[in-house]
Structures are given as structure tokens and as C-alpha cells.
Amino acid sequence: MKAGIPVKVNCNVLIYKTNTAFLTLHVYLIPRDPGLQQAMDKRELSYGYKVIRKPHPEKSLKMRDHFILTADLDGAEICPEELKLRYESRTPNFYEVFIENPDRNFALKLAHINGKQAIWTCTIRKDEYQSTPHKQGKHFVDKHRCDLIKRVSNIRPILDNLLKEQVIQQENYDTIRAITTTQEKMRTLYSGPLKAVGDAGKDIFYKILEEEESFLVADLKRMEL
After folding, report:
1. What are 5-49's pLDDT values in tens digits?
2. DSSP string of 52-111?
3. What span, in angstroms and rounded, lies between the C-alpha atoms of 163 and 211?
4. Which domains does the chain have, with CATH numbers?
5. pTM assigned to the model
């Protein structure tokens, strides 16, 4: 590579949905390095972002070549316009895809800057980016309040993350942590902080539940079908 010889490598495309009001995706193009992917997962998940797993490109790509990402949805903003494929072990750059009000499935396409043919495509489905369901005007965490109070078991990291995201304050955190049983902890959480924060705070609570109680959330979703 230092001599200027074009080196081809197998690559991964990593997609993370950010925890914002509008749809924002972070899309990485990186060499296929399990350690680097693990580091990116850890970093993005630490901010509460959700992984959207998609197949990787089949063909190997040349290091230092430039690539562009496009979306087949009106109003999609993608920055930067192009990225160079290179190995960065700590902070690789990424495409930020911003879509204000998506209402359908859409496709992402990655292409070489000098070519029109796609080297990788994927479909982002509506249920993958609308991860906080509101059915009939009622929020998921309100609709399933009784089941969540009875069945949540992993309460400590849930409270830690709620404090980190400022959904609850230190005083609430200390009060709830001092309660003996998990069910009473959940009841206090519902009757106090969650009642005050509205849907924005409940959205964050839901995302934390997806991470910490994924099987429970999946089971409650099945009950709605």
C-alpha cells in the first residue's frame, strides 16, 4: 500500500440507527476486521444507538478508492458525499443519512465514485427504523405497563441507562435503587419519573428495554399480533 500498489480487501457495511427524533443512520464502510466491528458496535451502542444488521458486500474493494452512498427516498440527506476506504483502528469516518419523515421501505446503494453500477445495496424496512411502536395512540410502555412491572428482571442496567440519558435524575435513581423488590422499583419508576417525561422519555425507556430485556419486548410484541 505504501508503494502505491492497489490492495483489494473484503469489507463490511455497518449501519446504526441513532436515538434522535428524526431518522438518522450512521453507515460505516470498513475492512472486514472482527475487532474493528466489535469496537464500532461497542461505541455506537454506548450512545444508545441500534444496530441494523445487513449482508456485507460480496466483492472485494480497493483500499483508498472513493465511494458514494445514495438512498432512493426524496429528501434524504447524506453527508459526506463520498468516503475513502481506509483502515482506521479507532475513529473511522461514516456516512450520516438523515431523513426527516420516512414513511416506507427504502434502499441504500453504495457505488464506486467513478462507476454507476452498485457494489452493494440493501433495503431498510419501515419496521427496522420505527422501533418505538405507538398503537392506537398509546405508547408501548404504557400499553404493557402491567406485564413490564411483573416481568422485568434486569432492572439495574435499565436504571443506569435511564440516569445516563437523563430520563431520571440522581435523586430518583437513588430512591428507586433503595427499594427492595424489582416490581416495586418498576411501579415507582412508572408513577414518578416516567409520568413526567412524556413520550420522548418513554421512547428512550423503550430503546433501553430492547437492549436489556430483548426477549421480553419481543414476546410482548407477539401478543399484539
Report:
1. 668 899 999 998 886 668 899 999 999 888 888 888 888 877 778
2. E--PPPSS-EETT-EEEEEESSTT-EEESS-EE----SS----EEEEESS--S-EEEEEE
3. 15
4. 8-129 (2.60.40.2660), 134-224 (1.10.533.10)
5. 0.58
